[in-house]
Model the fold of this input.
Amino acid sequence: MRMVEEGVTFPQGFLAAGVEAHIKKKDVDLAVVYSEDPCQAAGVFTTNKVQASCVSYTRRAVEQGPVRALVVNSGNANACTGPQGVEDTIQMARLVAGELGIEPHEVLVASTGVIGVNLPMDRIAGGIKKACSQLSKDGGESASAAIMTTDTVPKQAGAELTIGDCAVRIGAMAKGSGMIHPNMATMLAFMATDCAVDKEALDRLFREVVSRTFNQVSLDGDTSTNAMALLMANGMAGNHPLTAADPEFPVFARALEYAASQLAKAIARDGEGASKLLEVKVEGASSDEAARTIARSIARSNLVKAAVFGEDANWGRILCAAGYAGIPFRPEGVNIYLGDLQVCEHGAALPFDEAVALEVLRQPEVLIRVTMSEGRGEGVAWGCDLTYDYVKINASYRT
Amino acid sequence: MRMVEEGVTFPQGFLAAGVEAHIKKKDVDLAVVYSEDPCQAAGVFTTNKVQASCVSYTRRAVEQGPVRALVVNSGNANACTGPQGVEDTIQMARLVAGELGIEPHEVLVASTGVIGVNLPMDRIAGGIKKACSQLSKDGGESASAAIMTTDTVPKQAGAELTIGDCAVRIGAMAKGSGMIHPNMATMLAFMATDCAVDKEALDRLFREVVSRTFNQVSLDGDTSTNAMALLMANGMAGNHPLTAADPEFPVFARALEYAASQLAKAIARDGEGASKLLEVKVEGASSDEAARTIARSIARSNLVKAAVFGEDANWGRILCAAGYAGIPFRPEGVNIYLGDLQVCEHGAALPFDEAVALEVLRQPEVLIRVTMSEGRGEGVAWGCDLTYDYVKINASYRT
Done:
C-alpha cells in the first residue's frame, strides 16, 4: 500500500470540478463529482435530531443505489429551511442529473454553511451547469476547495494498493473546522475508490472505518445538522469483487482506514483557531468502543484543550475527563503519558521533569496516551487546543 | 415563604467558621459547620468514575446517619492521591470529631482544589482546631468564603417559612466556577435546615431538587472528581416531622428548591471568565427529564456560549444543540425566543428586529426559551458565556 496526496479523482473513472457559484462572498463554493460507471455507495450520517433535508435525501439514495454523482455546496447548509429546503435539495439532484444524463436518485447531495436561510437556487443552478461542463481528472483539488467553510486548507488523502493483479486506488476529500463560523455544518467526507466491493461488505466496512476515524474527531463537541461521510466504489479497477471473507479484503480495509484517518487528523489540525493537533490514545480499556469513548471525552474536554493551548502538563484534567466518559474503570489502574513522558502512575501523581513535559507540549502535535487495566480495548481520538481565536471566530459571525 | 440572603447558620442550632489554614497561598480555606442536634442528612455525589476519597467517605456517612458536622477545605482536592488520600480523609473526620466530642462517622468531609497532591495534614489539623474553636452563628459568611476556589464571590441563599405553627429556616452555601483554575473540583453545595423531615422523604426530595437545580448548571461541561451537594436537617424548628404525604411538605419542597436554584444561578453567573448568565428554558418536551437534558445541551454548547458572548442572535446553533441532546423531537414543532423576541418559528427562520435581539443579548442575564410540540415537559438550565478570559484562566495554572 502506498499513501498519496491525491483526492477524489485519483481512482479510475472519477471526474470532478469545483466552481464559483457565488453562494459565498468569494471563492469556489460548489463541487460536482462524477463516476463514469455506476457506484456502490455507503454513507454514515449525523445523529443530530435536527437534520438538513440533504441528509435524508442522500441517505435514501445511498440505500437505493447504485449512484453516479455527488453535488456539494458550501456557504449555505439548507438546514432549518422548511418545505422549500426539501424541494431545493431535490432540485439540486435534478439539475445535476439533467446535465449528466443520469437519474436524480443517482445523485448524492450535501450542503454546508449558514443555517436557516434558503438556498439561492438561481446561483446554485448556474454553478451546477458550470461544474458539470468542467468535470475532469484534474478537478479533485478545486472540488476539495469548493467544500470548505472556515477550513484554512483543503483536505485530501489517497492510497494505492494491489488486489489480485489489479491496481486499486482510493481518493478522498473532507472539510471540517468545528461547527464554526456562522453555523457551518461541521464535517463532510467524500471517499472514492475504483475497487470492486460487495455492497454489504462495503457498508459494514465503511461504518467501522468511520467509527474509528471521522467519529473520533472532536472539535468543539457540537454535532452538526449536515454532517455526512460518503464512499463511492465504481469497480473500474477490474478486480474480482471483494467480499468480507476474501483474504485480500483486510488490505483494502486498512488502506481505506488509513486514508480516512489522514483526513480525520487534518480536520482536527485545522479546527477553528487551533494551534495544535491533539491525539489521544487509550489502551487497556474493556473494549475498543470503551477506549474510543474515553479518548473522545478527553479530546473534547475544554479544560484539557485549554491546558494544551497553555502548554500545561495538567494530567489531573485528563484523568478527570476519562472519568466522566460514562465508562466504568478503576482509576488505580490508569497511567498517563504526554508523548513518552509518564506523568501519572496508578491514577496518582508521579514526579516528572517539567522541562521535558513542556518540550512535548510545545510541539504542533501533542500525544496523550492513557493506559488502563480493564482489558485489551484500544482507541484513538483527535482534537485541537482551545484558543483565544476559537472564541473570537465564534463570538460573532452573522453581524 | 420569605427568601433571605443568609447562609448555613441561618437555621436554628447551626454554627460555623471559616479560617485560614494556609492550604491556599492566601485567604480562608477551611470551613467547619456544626449542628447542636443530630441531623438527618441527604447527599448527591459526582458521577465521575474518578472520585476523590471524600466522596465515598461522605456518601457512607450520609447513608449511615445521623450526622453532626461538616468539614470542607479548599486549595487541595485530595483526589488521585492513592491510599494516603483515603487515610487523610478519615483523619480529617477524626480531628473534627475529637474537637467537637462527636464520632468520626458523624462528620461529613469535602475537599476542592488541585488534583494529585496529598493534603498538608499539619496545616489541615491546625485549621480544624482553629475553626472548631471559632464556631458561631456569625460564621456562615466566613465558611462560605473558605470553600471558594476561583469563585469571585461567596454564594449563600436562605429561606424562611412556616410549618404548622413553627418558623422553619433553610440556609445554604455553595462554590462553583467551572472546573477551573488548576483542576479545581467544580461544585460543592451545602444546605442546612432546622425543619424536621422524615429521612426517606428528605432523600427523595433532595435528589429531585438537585436534579432541577445544581445538576442543571453547565459551566464548561467537565464533571469534577469531587462534586457533591449535601443537606443536613436537625429538626430544631420543632415542627411535626414532615413526610412526603404531609399537606405542608410541598411548601418546604418549594422553599428548598428556590434556595437551591438561587445558588445554581449564582454559580452559573460566576463561571470562569463569564460576563453573562445564560438561562435556557425548554417547554413542551416529552417529559421534564427530556426538557432538562435538552436545556443542558444548549447551555453547554461552546457555539451557543460564544454567540452569547458575541451578542450574536444565532438561533441555528440553539436548535442544533437541542438536536444533539439525544432526545427525539420534531424540529418543525420548535419555536425559539431570545427574551421575549421570537427568532425561529416551526424550526425555521423568522424575520426579526436585529436591534431588539441585540438589546436582549446585551443584558447581563440572557434568557433563551425553546418551545416544542412533544408534550408537557419543562426544564431550565443555567450556564454562562464563553469568553477570552475563560481560555486565559484555563490555559495555565500549575506554572
